[in-house]
Amino acid sequence: MNTCFYIRSREGGLLLDCGASALIGLKKENLSTDDVDCILITHLHGDHFGGLPFILCEIIALGRRKKALTIIGPQHTEARTRESLMCFYSMEIAASAPIRFIEYATEQLVEIGSLRLIPFPAIHSRETNPHSLRLEQDNQVIAFSGDTQWTDHLIGVSEGADLFLCEASSFDRPIRNHTSVKDLLENRARIHAKRIVLTHVGEEVLTHLAQVPFEIAEDGAVLME
Length: 225
Description:
Layout (H helix, E strand, L loop, with lengths): L4 E5 L2 E5 L5 H7 L9 E3 L5 H4 L2 H11 L6 E5 L3 H13 L9 E5 L6 E3 L2 E7 L9 E7 L2 E5 L8 H6 L4 E5 L13 H6 L9 E4 L3 H4 L8 E2 L9
Parallel strand pairs: 2-3, 3-4, 4-5, 9-10, 10-11, 11-12
Antiparallel strand pairs: 1-2, 6-7, 7-8, 8-9
Helix pairs in contact: 3-4
């Protein structure tokens, strides 16, 4: 499925990216939109934020939600989400709906309850406002590359992380705006994360699995307890 990680903390449920298949993925794991309190977005491509209109449509249609849903993303997240919701469902978010948007700035700390979020620059399609994200909560650190070509900012975002989720769209073939397994191997000694799990893997990676010395995320897998 498209990129979407569900994180459960003492303060509630969080989605790290929300690709177009996010709602299907939640239901497959016996989760609902009621189990989501916050959604973090790395950039505005459909496989990373395209699930928002589906989730919002269900919340609006059911009309029972009382607690707030906080959506945190880069510049233009709110406008693009509202446009998508109108395009797909001819639906608007009422001013009274318990939904709020927060748009972060590069390398500016965002604090929501106990969650500390630091967005790092990423190299991807510029119009999507791409970022890598570092999340600190419950004395644990999760780093996520989002979609990005290799950049030394990944060293900072993953420093000391308990879990580093890193995209690897190719094995050793350079792909503009994306990272390869080769890039990670060349920089492995500089990445001081306790655990690295690959995501967003492409067909080339899947055909070289025996040569990939990293874990690879799978739908439904539990990565942390």
